[in-house]
Design goal:
Blueprint (H helix, E strand, L loop, with lengths): L1 E2 L5 E2 L10 H15 L8 H19 L13 H10 L4 H14 L7 H8 L14 H33 L8 H15 L4 E3 L5 E3 L1 H7 L15 H15 L3 H5 L5 E2 L10 E9 L5 E9 L7 H22 L8 E3 L14 E3 L5 H9 L6 H12 L8 H9 L3 H25 L4 E2 L9 E2 L4 E2 L27 E3 L1 H21 L1 H22 L1 H9 L3 H12 L5
Parallel strand pairs: 10-13
Antiparallel strand pairs: 1-2, 3-4, 5-6, 6-7, 8-9, 11-12, 12-13
Helix pairs in contact: 3-5, 6-7, 6-9, 6-11, 7-8, 9-12, 9-13, 16-17, 16-18, 16-19
Length: about 550
């Protein structure tokens, strides 16, 4: 028997597993330890998945010429044959990795077999793409419409019940009878009825007449969400918080912190718990204020609490440990593997998406793609993942992210190119003196003053003389070396005076270009240039740096 965190129960009969009696008992004992509190399986989903894998492995063993009679008979060769027989893709990958992890912890298994089971497999990945913008908006509009209608319906009937309990209605009136029916519904999950011999519930006629019918929309839907409406709420929670389906399904009821915000609005604390692969869970808390504004995280929590309050009250009255947010009512009381408090359901069941799709007419279960959309394209930050997982799984392989990155990368490349043009020496290095038609500047020789790359074509150069070293129209020959070497030394001296940030903004790029020049002409030629600096060179550079140089 496995009872999970939500109180759901299921019995597993190991007499149906197709292995010998000894292996049946070994598997059952090991399985029971995992199902026990603290054993690692907190959800029926985990035990049911392993039950499926174990039975598949047992059938495979039964087909062998010599079926294993004990754990020690499970050899590396047998395990490798099983592995090769598994289908490709996520399903086969899960069978091998999950069952291997389950079995190799048993002491009776041989060491070589343990090693074979621990062998890493290439990860199988589901290539899911984020929702297109129009798909995302359609999904959000549909979920909002469905949940809003349910929330307003439950709020109105909750208010009617409050008034009835305060004796605001005339006894015997229709409103009074509706209030009496709602009171029974809030306590038991049913309006007043009698149970027939075959288990059929017969609603009393006066309540059916007052409510307008015996169908769900006239009776229990007045106070409780349907399965599809609970799924709509889950969609909105994923959209708002970027959580995965398991976290939403197992989300505990958020609590308002003691002492509301300064403006009187509540501040909710969400306690998030995400299962990890293998043993362990990830815990996180987040706080969200309800500021009164629509379409905010805090307001969504307030509305979710109101819409689920009647159902949660019935469930927690039966078992206080079942304090989950996502509680809804089933059409019919189900077995205990669906809920420990029939007819209520907790969290997202296997067919929750089917109910949602049938009610909305949409196609495809959206939660996985929705979470990827929210975290990769909207929140743009990890949602209960490491940064590496967020980047590798959610971002880098997403086509929409790749497409959106193209202009950003191009802009960055253009910026880098522009920066490089300003920080790399682009002037021509020459050995000869001036060429005909050129003009001397304080730092170089200009060969085309009228067509500068820094100003409008044909208007003449208006750039600083410090930009000459970044201009392809400039020529630097040995005549300029002494003056430029002195400029380099002066700029280095300003660095300690002005501070790094100011110096880098005003003088950093010219200094880097002169560093490039020194590297190109060599240390010996640079030292010779420094030794040859004249008083005229010093006066020219001083005038240039002080902004008083005039041709």
């Amino acid at each position: 028997m496995h009872r999970d965190r939500k109180g759901r129960e299921r019995t597993f009969d190991f007499g149906r597993v197709q292995v010998c009696g000894e292996l049946q008992r070994v598997f059952a004992r090991w399985f029971a330890e995992k199902c026990a509190p603290g054993g690692g399986w907190d959800s029926l989903k985990s035990s049911e998945a392993m039950w499926f894998h174990l039975r598949a492995f047992a059938r495979f063993c039964a087909e062998q010429d010599t079926p294993p009679q004990a754990l020690s008979d499970i050899t590396p060769a047998l395990w490798n044959r099983w592995r090769l027989r598994r289908p490709e893709g996520l399903h086969g990958y899960a069978q091998v990795t999950s069952l291997g992890s389950f079995l190799r912890g048993h002491e009776e298994l041989g060491e070589e077999t343990r090693s074979a089971m621990a062998k890493r497999l290439p990860a199988a990945r589901a290539e899911e793409r984020a929702l297109a913008p129009e798909e995302f908006e359609e999904l959000r509009a549909t979920a909002r419409k469905m949940f809003r209608a349910a929330h307003l319906r439950i709020r109105a009937n909750t208010e009617h019940l409050r008034q009835w309990r305060e004796e605001a209605f005339e006894p015997g009136s229709q409103d009074w009878t509706i209030g009496e029916a709602l009171d029974s519904l809030a306590r038991t999950g049913f309006i007043p009825h009698t149970v027939m011999k075959k288990g059929t519930r017969y609603y009393f006629a006066r309540f059916v007449a007052a409510l307008g019918g015996a169908a769900p929309q006239h009776t229990w839907m007045r106070l409780f969400l349907t399965r599809a409406e609970a799924y709509a709420l889950a969609v909105l929670l994923v959209m708002e918080f970027g959580l995965n389906a398991t976290v939403v399904s197992e989300l505990r009821t958020p609590r308002a912190l003691a002492g509301a915000g300064a403006d009187g609005f509540p501040i909710y604390r969400m306690e998030l718990e995400k299962p990890r692969r293998g043993a362990g869970r990830r815990f996180e808390t987040r706080n969200f204020p309800d500021t009164g504004d629509a379409d905010t995280p805090g307001r969504l929590i307030t509305n979710a609490l109101e819409a689920t309050s009647p159902a949660r009250a019935v469930v927690t009255a039966a078992d206080g440990a079942l304090d989950f947010l996502l509680v809804w009512r089933n059409v019919l009381p189900g077995p205990r593997n669906l809920s420990p408090v029939p007819p209520f359901g907790i969290g997202l069941t296997k067919n929750a998406s089917d109910s949602w799709l049938a009610a909305t007419g949409l196609t495809g279960a959206p939660l996985r793609r929705l979470r990827k959309t929210v975290n990769a394209l909207h929140r743009r930050e990890p949602g209960q993942n490491s940064q590496d997982t967020h980047d590798s799984v959610y971002v880098l392989r997403e086509p929409q992210v790749q497409q959106a990155s193209v202009p950003v990368i191009a802009e960055g490349a253009e910026g880098a190119l522009a920066h490089a043009r300003h920080t790399v020496l682009r002037a021509q290095l020459a050995d000869s003196a001036a060429v005909p038609g050129s003009q001397e500047t304080p730092t170089a020789e200009c060969t085309d003053y009228g067509n500068s790359p820094f100003t409008a074509q044909g208007t003449g150069c208006r750039a600083s003389f410090l930009m000459c070293t970044a201009c392809p129209n400039a020529r630097i020959h040995p005549k300029h070396h002494a003056r430029l070497a002195h400029l380099h030394r002066c700029l280095a001296g300003l660095r300690s005076v002005l501070g790094e940030e100011t110096w880098a903004a005003d003088w950093g790029n010219p200094f880097i270009r002169l560093e490039d020049l020194r590297r190109r002409i060599g240390a010996e030629a640079w030292a010779t240039a420094l030794a040859a600096v004249t008083s005229a060179d010093r006066e020219t550079i001083a005038s240039l740096l002080e902004g008083r140089y005039d041709l």
